[in-house]
Design goal:
The protein has two helices and three strands.
């Protein structure tokens, strides 16, 4: 079973990397981009067979290590 975790900065948290990407896109001629938020995706291969249990376990991983929950939000998808 696979789990996919998408981690993004929370709304209101400055995203300097996203702003640098937006600026670079403008420099390359892509003028229609008014905002960019940059995040990360983590894929986990799990031994679990129960999807609900796997999601709960991955959420614990996010709370404990994978995401900085003070400034980041995350979404867990079992695929």
């Amino acid at each position: 079973m696979k789990a996919r975790v998408t981690i993004m900065l929370k709304d209101g948290v400055l995203d300097p990397q996203g702003e640098a990407i937006r600026h670079a896109l403008g420099g390359l001629g892509h003028k229609g981009v008014s905002g960019v938020r940059q995040g990360k995706v983590i894929e986990l291969d799990l031994d679990a067979t129960d999807a609900a249990q796997a999601k709960t376990e991955v959420e614990k991983m996010c709370e404990g290590l994978l995401a900085n929950t003070v400034i980041e939000k995350y979404a867990v998808e079992i695929v």
